[in-house]
Design goal:
ChyE-like, 9-stranded mixed β-sheet, alpha/beta, GATASE, Class_I_gatase-like, Type 1 glutamine amidotransferase, glutamine amidotransferase
């Protein structure tokens, strides 16, 4: 398959997803929106991955490329492309499916559990854990689009993972992270780490044994389903 991904910030790349795509032998292309707003033709790609970013889905008034990306994403949805969105990417999918995006009650930054419904295992055609400690970094949240299914939640954010049909998944959290990715996030976003109920401090995050292997296994099952 040929997979295109959209990167919204230099410090939020594919992470583990890059390794998975290479292992599967997929070809990959990308759009880095801070350099170019050119998106591929629909018939040139088989799947689409939308990564995170510090901006809001609602920032179209000062980020003109957001309107262009939303139009491209809507076209991909209408064409039945297989699509994965992570954090901002999931919010973009939800928005294009008609769901509002708003400030979350709590900002989540750090390693926190999500509770996963058995419905996700049925969607993935693979076992899914009931609880999983994953990395979060978000201050906004999506509502669940009409006809989509909510599969996961956390204490700090009730909407953590949804699917739409058999070919679209949106994840609020970051299972793609590696130790290097989290270090890069600190470098560019440490000013966001303030006191908060669901905000861990840098030393706390770095001292928690990262649940990378379990997160990557979980993400692999979703990637296998979609791509």
């Amino acid at each position: 398959m040929h997979i295109h991904y959209i990167q919204h910030a230099p410090f939020e790349g594919l992470g583990f997803i890059e390794e998975w795509l290479q292992h599967k032998g997929h070809t990959v292309s990308s759009t880095q929106v801070w350099e170019s707003q050119d998106f591929p033709s629909l018939n040139s790609i088989d799947g689409l991955i939308l990564m995170g970013g510090p901006m809001s889905v609602n920032d179209e008034h000062h980020l003109a490329w957001l309107s262009t990306e939303k139009k491209f994403l809507t076209d991909c949805i209408d064409a039945g492309k297989n699509i994965l969105g992570i954090c901002l990417g999931a919010q973009l999918i939800a928005s294009c499916l008609g769901a509002p995006i708003s400030k979350s009650t709590f900002t989540e930054i750090g390693w926190f559990d999500i509770t996963i419904e058995s419905s996700l295992g049925r969607w993935m055609n693979a076992p899914a854990p009931h609880k999983l400690k994953v990395f979060h970094w978000h201050g906004e949240t999506f509502e669940i689009p009409e006809d989509a299914i909510l599969h996961a939640s956390s204490d700090g954010c009730s909407n953590q993972l949804f699917t739409y049909g058999e070919n679209i998944a949106g994840l609020q959290f970051h299972p793609e992270m590696t130790t290097r990715d989290i270090a890069t996030m600190f470098e560019f976003g440490e000013d966001e780490i303030v006191e908060g109920r669901y905000i861990q401090q840098v030393n706390e995050i770095t001292q928690i044994p990262g649940n990378y292997e379990a997160c990557h296994a979980f993400l692999s099952a979703i990637l296998q389903k979609l791509f």
